[in-house]
Amino acid sequence: MEKNSKLKSWRETRTLTSRAFRIFFKRYPQMVMSRLLSVMWTALTPYVGIYLSALVIDELAGSRNIRRLQALVLLTLLSGAFTALCSAFLEKWKETQNAGLWLKVEQIFAEKLFEMDYGNLDETKTAELLSTIRQNQNGGGWGLYRVIENYETLCSSLLTIIGGFSTTIALFTSPVPESAGAYTIWNHPLCVALVIAVMIVITYTAPALYNKAGSYWARNADSINFSNRMFSFFGWLGDRKEIAADVRVYRQDKMCERYNQKKDDAFGSGGQFAAYSRGPAGLYSALSSAVSVLFTGVVYTFVCLKAWAGAFGPGAVTQYVVSATKVAGGVSSLISMLGNMRNNASFLEQVFTFLDIENRMYQGSLTIEKRRDRKYEVEFRNVSFRYPGSTYDVLRNVNMKFEIGKRLAVVGRNGSGKTTFIKLLCRLYDPTEGEILLNGIDIRKYNYAEYMTLFSVVFQDFQLFALKLGENVASKVDYDEVRVLDCLEKAGFTEDFFKMQKGVETYLYKDYEKDGVNVSGGEAQKIAIARALYKDAPFIILDEPTAALDPVAEAEIYFRFNEIAGDKTSVYISHRLSSCKFCDKIVVFHGGEVIQQGTHDSLVAEENGEYYKLWHTQAQYYTE
Ligand code: ADP
C-alpha cells in the first residue's frame, strides 16, 4: 500500500493509462469514437461563430455594405443552427454509447472474478484489493473511469488549442502601422516573444497549482481507502435485510453511528482532508484561480494596445480575446488533465494488480468422454490438502473410490474436512499432494468446464437469485417448464409451490418484484435440490441437504432419496446419521483423515470406532 500512495513517474503513468485506454477501446470502440467526434465538434465549431461575428463587426465598423452584411448575418445564423443540430445529434449518440459506464467498468471486474481460480477468491488480499478499487472509484472517481474522462479532456483541449491557435496567430503577426509611432514596439519580435512567454507561464502556473492541490488525494490514498472501507461497511448496514433483525435486537445502529460520524475520520470535519483544505490544498486551489484571472488581463491589454495602434479593426478584438482565452483554457485543461492522469496512475496500478491476479490451477484440455451409462469413476489417491495461507493440512492422505451409481455417505464432526473433500472433488481446489483420477486420468488434465458438467452440488451455503423460480431451478433464462416442475416435485417442493401465484414465473424474494415470494430456509433448500436435479449430472452431491428442513420434510427427502439420486453416483454429507443408514457405503472423517469406511451395520458393530460413538450419541439424544 505504501507504494501506491506515492505519485507514479510519467513513464509509469503513460504505460498504465494507455493500457487502461486499450481495454476501453477494445471492448467499447463506439463509446470511445462517440466521445472523440462529439468533442471534436464541440471544440472546433465555436471558432466558426467567432470568425463570422468578427466579420460582421468589421463590416459594421468599416464599409457598411448592406448586402454583404445581410449575407454575413444569414451565414452566421445558418451555421449556428447547423452546428447546434449536429451537436445535439452527436451528444445523443455519445449519451447512448456511454450509458451505464459505471456498469461497464464493473463488468470488467465481474468477468475477472468469474474466471478467477476459486482459491484466489478465498484470499483476503483479493477481497481487500477489490474493495479498495471500488472505494477509490466510488469515492473520488479514480481508476478506470477516470481514464475515459481524461481521454475526453485530452481530445477537447488539444482541439481547442489547435482551433484557437489558428485564429489567434494573426494577433501576433498583424503589424502596427509605422504611423503609430512608439506603438510600433509591438512589431518587434522580442516584444512578441515576451508576451507569449508571459502567457505561457501564466497558462502553465494555474493548472499546475490546481494539480498540486489535487495531489493531496493521491498522496494519501491509504487513509482514503481505509475511511472509504469503513464507510462502505458501516454506512450501508441499514440496507442489508439479512442483518436487519440483529441490528434491532442488539442496537448495532449505535455502533454504526459512532463510526459514521467520527469527526477525525479522513473525511470528517476534524480529519486529514479538512485540514488540507484549510491549509495547503486550499491555498493552492485559490492561487490557481487568481492566476487564471491574470491571464485574461494580459490578453486584453495586449489586444487593446495593438488595436489602439491600428494593427486590426474592432471586430478582430473580440475574436482575438475569445480565441486567446480559449487557447489558454485548452492549455490549462490539458495541463490539469496531465496532472490528473498522473494522480490517477497509482489508482490504476491497483486496478491492474487485481486484473493481473494469476490463475495458478493447471488448465487441461482433454475432453471428457460422453457416456450414456454414466460410468465415471473417480478415485482419490493419497490426497492431502492445505488451504492457501493456512499452516496445517485440512485433509491428510485420503484414499477413496466412488463406486459408480452407488450412494456414499460422508460423516464426521464439524471441521473434520467433509466439505473440503467435496470441493476437491469438484476441482474448486487442487490437492496439495496426491491426485484425483477420473477414469484413471488425473482430473487436472481435463478441460475444466467439461469436468464441472459432471457434478450437481447443493452446498451448505448455497445461494438463490432474486429471479424467477424457474430460472433459479434451471440456471437459465429459457428453461423447460415441465422439467422444472418435475425437479421441484422430486425435491419435495409441492405444497410450497401453491404459494407461487405465477407458478415457475414467480420471483423469489422481493428485490426486483413486489409480488416476489420470500421463501423460508427449508423451501430454499428444496429449490436448491431441484436445481441440482435439473442439471442432471452423473454425480449428485448434497452437503447437509436437510439442515434447514423440518422433520417431516426431512423424512420426505430421505424417503425420496432413491428417486432423487436415480442412477447417479451420489454423495451425501450429513450430521444426522439416521439419514445415512440407507447409503451403500459410509466414510467417517476425523481431523482431516478417513478413519473408517463400511456399511452402517459393519461400522456400528465397531464399538471402539468414531461412528459407533457418533451413532450412539445421537440415538441417545433421540430416545431420551
Ligand atoms: P466440515 O465440512 O467437516 O465441517 P470443512 O471442510 O468445512 O469441514 O473444514 C475443514 C477445516 O478447514 C476447518 O478447520 C476449517 O476451519 C478449515 N477451512 C475451511 N475453509 C477454509 C478456507 N477457505 N481457508 C482456510 N481454512 C478453511
Automatic annotation (TrEMBL):
It is a multi-pass membrane protein. Its main location: membrane. The keyword RNA-binding does not apply. Keywords: ATP-binding, Membrane, Nucleotide-binding, Transmembrane, Transmembrane helix. InterPro entries: AAA+_ATPase, ABC1_TM_sf, ABC_transporter-like_ATP-bd, ABC_transporter-like_CS, P-loop_NTPase, Type_1_exporter. It is found in: Cell membrane. GO terms for molecular function: ATP binding. SUPFAM superfamilies: ABC transporter transmembrane region, P-loop containing nucleoside triphosphate hydrolases. Residues 378-616 form the ABC transporter domain. The chain crosses the membrane at residues 36-57, 69-90, 154-173, 185-210, 281-303. It comes from the Bacteria. Pfam families: ABC_tran (PF00005). The keyword Transmembrane helix applies. This is ABC transporter ATP-binding protein. It comes from Sellimonas caecigallum.
